[in-house]
Amino acid sequence: MPDQSETEVLLAARDWKAAGHRVALATVVKTWGSSPRPAGSHLAVRDDGFFVGSVSGGCVESRVVEEALAVMQTGAPKLLEFGVSNDEAWEVGLACGGRVEIFVEALE
Amino acid sequence: MKTDILDRVIEHVEAKRPIVLATDLGSGEQRLLRPGEGADESERATVQTALRLDKAITADTDEEPRTFYQPFNPPLRMVLVGAVHIAQPLSVMATLAGYEVTIIDPRSAFAASERFPGVELSLAWPDEALESLGLDARSAVVTLTHDPKLDDPALQVALRSDAFFIGCLGSAKTHAARLRRLAKEGFSETELQRLHGPVGLPIGSRSPAEIAVSVLAQITETLRRPAS
After folding, report:
1. Same structural domain for residues B98 and B194?
2. What pLDDT band is residue A2 in, cutting at 50, 70 and 90?
3. Domain segments of chain A: what residues?
4. Which domain does B182 fall in, by range?
5. Residues A55, A61: contact at Cβ < 8 Å?
6. Mutate which: B2, B4, B5, B6, vs A, most A CBs within 10 A
7. What is this model's ipTM?
8. Alpha-carbon distance B189 to nearest alpha carbon in chain A (angstroms)
9. Number of CB pairs < 8 Å for A and B?
10. Is the pLDDT of residue B169 over 60?
11. What is the CATH number of the domain that holds B207?
């Protein structure tokens, strides 16, 4: 089993959905280099922007939440990639020099 | 993700049954695979590896779209034999690290719930208690009593199980005596090499809490770097 907090993220996603919210789940699917959270780490996002869990050390969460809100609208899953080697590095990159791929899907 | 898939994942986690969630990273389509299941030989192997290493895997092929395999294993368990002082900080730290902790001690003055709020306590004899817990490859056992009458029967059960970690508190001298006693019970040298004794990484610990840190660090290393 993933550690307890991972299960808590999934439970939160289920409970929000049951309470009538729109919900999206972001999952780290691949990492390169020294990324802070291993593959399988989850972030659950609610339609009001509230979230639990983490997919990085806090470096890319705000962008992932934005994307998650968009995925809730379209219903189409999305694969995101973050690294340091882009112009936005100072804004949404990983300061540790790692690279991470994150799958975002709506809970239907 | 379909709500129904999420419900089934949670159901398996709560029932402590291993399962792998396979996600097609193109379409988002998902399947739940039990140990031994998979579309073909290579997928069955990937499912096994993900569960054994407790590690999510994205199949490294040129095929697009790729598939992501996420294992959900039963929880880690730590069984402490001896409700002694060190068991107090160790049970708290182990719980924080995600272990379900059970403390076994037939001496009721030690295994008092006031001393271990919120921790599962067993007053049974250690070998019987361990037999009934059913140790598996996600279990760690640490003996803490220094008393061969309590520690040795527990170690005999642990050595016959798949427990990923077996540790014994005590000096190098008492550990040598312990190994001699267990060898007389018929355990081979190879089998006895599974014992970590004296348990804990050598970080100069003095207080019970510091010793608990060294024990949890060694268990973590054994879990996460099984080759070392």
Report:
1. yes
2. very low
3. 4-106
4. 76-224
5. yes
6. B6
7. 0.84
8. 33
9. 70
10. yes
11. 3.40.50.720
